[in-house]
């Protein structure tokens, strides 16, 4: 299957199957719009095994049927990238720390 297919074509041709798509084209919401079907099967584990065997550089796994209840999704070899690096606040002028001191009072009724 060397042809690039739209999501509508994939859903029509592979009803109620798991699909491994290479180089998926996505919209702004990262929903697959098209791509090359590498493998398809009604057996999810078979498609996972094929993905591990083929090791596509960019891929998506689709389920064109109703997702079975209690389905776990595994993302092998997914590289993550830090989006933000949040550090503890620091004073530009530490000598001004005394201006931020707080006094805590405890009252009992």
Task: Write out key terms for the chains shown.
2 helices; alpha+beta; 4 strands; 109 residues; elongated
Give a verbal description of the structure.
By secondary structure, the chain is an alpha+beta fold. The protein has a domain at 4-63. It has two helices and four strands. It has a four-stranded antiparallel β-sheet. Strand 2 and strand 3 form a beta hairpin. The radius of gyration is 25 Å and the shape is elongated.
Low-confidence stretches: none
- Give the amount of beta strand, in percent: 15-25%
Largest sheet: 4 strands, antiparallel
- Anisotropy-based shape: elongated
What is the gist of this entry?
The protein is α+β, with helices and mostly antiparallel strands and 109 residues long. The protein has helices spanning 7-13, 44-54, and strands at 4-6, 18-26, 32-41, 59-63.
Blueprint (SSEs and pairs):
Elements (H helix, E strand, L loop, with lengths): L3 E3 H7 L4 E9 L5 E10 L2 H11 L4 E5 L46
Antiparallel strand pairs: 1-3, 2-3, 2-4
